[in-house]
Every structure is written in C-alpha cells, then in structure tokens.
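This protein record is not my work; I was only asked to verify it. The record follows directly below this note.
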Amino acid sequence: MKLSGATQAEVLKLASSTQILTSIPERLTAHNITNAVKITNILLSRDETAQSTNKTISVRFSYVSASDFNEDVGFVLYNSDQFFQTKSFQPSLDTKRRVISANLQENLGFVDIEFAFTPSVDFTLSLNDFACVFWSYTENDWSPEGCTKTNNTSGLAVCSCKPKELENANFAILMTFDINYQYSEPLHWISITGCALSILGLFVTAVYQIITRKSRGGNPTLLMVNICMSMAVFYLLFIFGINNPVQHLSVAKLSGQNIVPESDHHKYPDEGPCTAFTALLQYFLLATFTWNTLYGINVFLIFKNGVSGTPPWFPKVSLATGWGLPAVIVGISLGFTYSVKEPLGYRQEEFCWLASLDHKQKFSMWKPMFWGFLLPLMLMLLSSMAVLVHFSHNICRTNPNLNRSRKTPLKKKILSSFSLAVILGLSWVTGYILIISHETNLKLILSVVFCLLNTTQGVQIFILFTLRPLLN
C-alpha cells in the first residue's frame, strides 16, 4: 500500500494489523516484530508527522538465555518525549524526540538493544551531534550510562544500549542541531561604491563646514561636523566589518563521546572580531541619529528664540548627549544579551549586526535589534519629523525674525525642507516598512530603495549642504 495516497480508513486498517502483530503473544515472532516496526515507521512518516526530528526507526536486539527464546516482548514507540521531563536537556528549537519503550522479561538474561533514527528536519537545521540515552528512574532523567553510539555512514544515528532494568526500559536519541545560516556574499558593488562616495562627500562637507563656520555660527558647524564624522566612521566599519569572517558551516561534527547535550541547539562560543564590529556599528549609527536629532532641536530653538539663537549651554549638552547616549544604549545591549558562550544573544551569525530573529527566523521584539536600535531610532525619528513639520510650516511663510527684507523663493524653501529631511535620516523610515512587509516583491523593492537611500546619504549631504550653497 502506498501510504501517501491512502485514505483514513486504509491507514486505520494498517494500524490495526500492526496491533495484531504485536498484541498476541503466541503469534509473536522475530519476523512479526520486524514487520510491525516497518509498518509503524511508515505510519509515523506520513505528512502529518513530517516535522518530527527522528523519522526512520529500526530496532534489533540480541539476548543470552538459558533456554530458547519463547517470551513476550513488547515495544511502544512514543512520537514525542513529553512523558519524559528532563532537566539536563533543555530544547529551544521546534524539534521532536521519539522514545522507544521496551518491556522485556527478566529471565531473558543479558539483552543488548540496538536502535537507530534518521534525522529528518527542515532546511533551516542540520545535525551537529547526538547522544544515546535511556531513562533512569533513579535519576529521573536521561542517562548515557550503558549506551554507545555509532557514526553510521548511511545517515542513521545508531545506538546500542544494555539496560539494567528490562521492564519499562525507555530509549531515545538526543540530537543537537546547527541552524543553517545563509552567510552574506561580499558586498555588492553598488553598496561599496555608494559608501565610498559617501565617505568622500562627508569629508568634504566637514571641511567646508569648518572653513565657513564664521558665516553660520558655532552650533550648526559643531552639529554638522559630528554628523559627518559619526556617519563616515559607520560607513568605513560597514565596508570592512559587516561580513562575519568566522563562518560556522553546517557540517556534522559527530564526536565519539556519548554525552547528553544541554540543548537541541548547538551554540558556538564567541570568536573573531564580529561582536566588536557589531558594537561599533551600533554605536556610530546611533551616534549619527543622535546628532541628527540634536540638529533638529537646534533648528527648533532657532525658530523659537529668533535672533537670539540657541542657549549658550547647548554645545556642551550636545557633545555629552551626542557621544554619551549611544554608549549607554550599547552598554545596556551588551550587558543584558551578550556572553562569550552565547554571542548570538547580542549579534547575528550571518553578518556582524544586532540579533533580530528568533529560532523560527521571525522578527522578535525581545532581541536587541528592536529595543537596542529600532526603538531609540523610532523615538528620534518621531522628534525629527515633528521638527521637520514645524520647520516646513514656518519656512514656507514670511518669518520676521529670520527674513525681514524679502520672502525666500519657493524653490529654496522646498530645498531647505528637503535638506533637513535628509540630514534627520528620514530615509530610514523605509527600514521600518521593510520589517513589517511580508509581500516578496514589495520587500525586494524596499530593500533596493533602502540600500540606495542610505549608502548614498553622505553624497546627498554633500550635494545639499556643500555643493548647493557653492552654486547659489
């Protein structure tokens, strides 16, 4: 019978036949046991149980007895390990563990049970290692004592156990997996070109701001130079440090030791400079937006105070806030999520940036990407948008404090508003839309737009704050 196209009635009939094979002691033979195991394996390999970690099962046992083997033997296959609550093995992935329960007679003497599972997982996971265990009622936990494992070349995880208790002997294979990460390719030439041009544009803009500082006052120059500095450093770090140089490829590393793993998710200790690059990228990008926000506050104070400008304390507060606030956020992120044994609590594996996805590869609000970057950024963007609306509303009408002789031409007003929008980083709003978007084509379009807007932001700043004033 081909089970993939079988009806529910045919499946029930097959299951009933399996029960008959194993429930009548006088008919029980080695041949019947073998057939029953095969049928049970087919039943449990249907689509409904395709998510199970252990798929193909085979059982073989040998014995030493004073008389010919003529005893009852019972096997129960549990499709999950929910009846066996363990403290030593704490799963964190959505994997199942099947348990084989053997009920044997004491007068069988020495019994060696050999069983095997074939790992069957989705494309996001691959086998790292496994341990052969039995359920110890003394320890009330899984124990590897008396069990050995074999690295089978055919893909089977093979175990051999010699149980101390022949009645209600429960066996399982505890597997630990690697997550199959898609490591980023070398940076696309558009991104590299955009970042390189942005670094050049930011450098020229910073020099221009310093040379012409007398005509604009101290505060705008201080703010703009720090924006250019933090953004340029971020682009440099992005070019040379975004790719993780240490790649943990998903290749099974089966060890000869039969040790109970701590979890079904194998975790690598931190190595290489990826965590340091992640912290620096987080810091300088947060610093860029902090200085952007301070720039907006400076514009707001100019409109509020008129010709008197910003208060004298503002430069010192700006320096402390612009470089200090990002350091506090990065410190909190590292303190709450990072450890040498588990660096992926703080950063990602594929590339050197903040962790954002859970084990199901879905965006999680509990990861530092959200509360260590996106949440502070959202608050900064909201304040920047409020300043932009206030600025646009005031600049598009006659302002006696700023323009006593003539109205600003409409073209210059629009360019000024657009310039502030760029410097406040509102192009990052597309990043939020990208996160909540689930439509494939829309995500592709937003990814391209997001990349173009942000890798060339330094070029935009150069055009709007250096080249445009020189041409006017």
User: Anything to note?
Assistant: The two ends are 83 Å apart (CA to CA). The beta strands are 54-64, 74-78, 99-103, 110-119, 125-136, 141-143, 147-151, 157-161, 169-179. The chain has two domains: 51-179, 189-250+267-471.
